[in-house]
Amino acid sequence: MSTKSVSAPVPGARRRLSWNDPGVRAVAYQVLAVAAVGLVIWFLVSNTLHNLAARNIATGFGFLWREAGFAIGETLIDYGPANSYGRAIVVGLVNTLRVALIALVLSTLLGILIGIARLSRNWLINRLASVYVEVMRNVPLLIQLFFWYAVITENMPAPRLALHPLPGVFISNRGLKLPALQGDALDWMLWGLALAIVAIVGLHRWGARRQDATGKVFPLGRAALGLVVCLPALGWLASGASLTLDMPVLKGFNFQGGMTLTPEFAALLAGLTIYTSAFIAEVVRSGIQAVNHGQTEAASSLGLRRGLVLRLVVLPQALRVIIPPMTSQYLNLTKNSSLAVAIGYPDIVSVVNTTLNQTGQAIEGILIIMAAYLTVSLSISIFMNWYNKRIALVER
């Protein structure tokens, strides 16, 4: 019985192009797909430019250097109507980053607490946490923003009848008034705080290496508290400059002095924090439950208290499960901050809307918003992916 031998392809032999070859078809389909997408983009761009030219609408980003002519009610950097549209958009972006960063921190802390509470053995705490998660996750964020804004503006008293729970603290329908530090020494104190944060990060890494080598736990919490208090104080002393506490005072129909958290900012911060914390709580709960129960039993057999078991054994392992979905929640929070326009907070969307209404540069304005959110989202993703790689188990 004879068998036919199949000859192997000769190395270096020239490959014949044939439509029956799957590789050839794959390349051809990809070229056609790219060409089709390019054709659609060319058609849209050329058609848009033709329509703009027919209506005598200027294109380009030259409007960014023209005078804005409108005020922004809440700013962290110097701005006035005489500044440019570009400056106004930067103010809006700073306002967006301000509320997003604060909400990220608060929602993370609250979400961790609620997530741990959902695993509590106490029936009441467990049920309350479950109700919180189910209610907040299933009510749209926009409705929550309207609710908190109505609570602050309609149910809070007028400035003359403002709540006064602490010295220098006033709560009214104009927002929350707080004392503010003023003076040239403030910059030195901020540099001292930044140096303290860097020192805490360095101590954390050194303490981890020391614990791995000797088994001794470094008291990072007390050291961090000392650095946060002492270094800004040293900066104030070294500057030799004045530092005063500006207390808010009721004058006429409103308060003067101090710092203000406006109702719009407070409502947006409350809505983003409460809404996102419900999702983060579920991420934390699932991450903790993903850790093998044998780890908890082994730690308890060593005599560790439940709090130490959770902090030193369970959470470090759960982080590897928590971080990826947590990144998605951070991205959602940042993008959800664009709903600020619904309650009048001057974020980048609100400022760009005012700009394009005055200039007619709608396409450029939308592109600016898209580029801003894309940059912020990619920055968060890069940082979270970097952190996820740092805590990931290294396979041998």
From TrEMBL:
Membrane topology according to the record: Multi-pass membrane protein
TM helices/strands, residue ranges: 26-45, 97-119, 131-151, 188-208, 220-245, 265-288, 308-327, 366-387
Residue ranges of domain ABC transmembrane type-1 in the record: 93-384
Coiled-coil residue spans: none
InterPro entries: AA_ABC_transptr_permease_3TM (IPR010065), ArtM/GltK/GlnP/TcyL/YhdX-like (IPR043429), MetI-like (IPR000515), MetI-like_sf (IPR035906)
UniProt keywords, alphabetically: Amino-acid transport, Cell membrane, Membrane, Transmembrane, Transmembrane helix, Transport
SUPFAM superfamilies: MetI-like (SSF161098)
GO CC terms in record: ATP-binding cassette (ABC) transporter complex
GO BP: amino acid transport
Gene Ontology MF terms in the entry: transmembrane transporter activity
Family stated for the protein in its record: Belongs to the binding-protein-dependent transport system permease family. HisMQ subfamily.
NCBIfam families with a match to the protein in the record: HEQRo_perm_3TM
Protein name stated in the entry: Amino acid ABC transporter permease
Organism (species): Achromobacter aloeverae
